[in-house]
Amino acid sequence: SNMARTTNNSPPDAGHFDKDAEYRFKCYVRKGDVRTNPRGGTPFDFTVKISEGLEVAKAKVLTFVRRSISGAQLISEYLYFKRSKGCPQSQYVTLSDENFESMTERRWKLITQRDVTSWANEEQPKTPLEKFEFETFMYIH
User: In DSSP terms, which residues pair with 83 in a beta bridge?
Assistant: First the structure.
């Protein structure tokens, strides 16, 4: 019931997490195995609605890899997710149909009021939806 609402249920600093909104994602396609901690990578920006699901996000990345990185051999089709700003590569999460929504929502809730304020104060003010990017990673041989 709504009577049980506590301050913990107040909306995130970044605003309501709307699964039907277009969210910004960045995928770094890295050479090497995730366990060897490769750096850098070829960045690819895309948008996806969380409600469309992981398959849509993954399809966009795979299309980019096949078109833009000649001879790329995927180590796997896993899309890895950076759970928080300082999260080390060893703790990236493999996204699945089951956790796609919960992982993205949890990350969205980590956006701070400080982030929101600094984006709003930029020369071209941006909302969290316009500015924030979920960071993902795919690995190739």
Answer: none
* Angle at the Cα of 52 from the Cα atoms of 45 and 46, rounded to 5 degrees: 5
- Partners of 25 in the β-ladder: 46, 134
In order of 7, 64, 94, the CA distances from 4 in angstroms are: 10, 46, 34
Q: How far is CA 34 from CA 18, 54, 57, 97, 106, in A?
A: 31, 20, 20, 20, 22
Write out pLDDT tens, residues 99-130.
999 999 999 999 999 999 999 999 999 999 99
Contacts of 22 (CB under 8 A, 6+ apart): 47, 48, 49, 129
Residue type, 70: S
DSSP 3: G
Encoded tokens for 60: 């966009």
pTM for the predicted model, two decimal places: 0.91
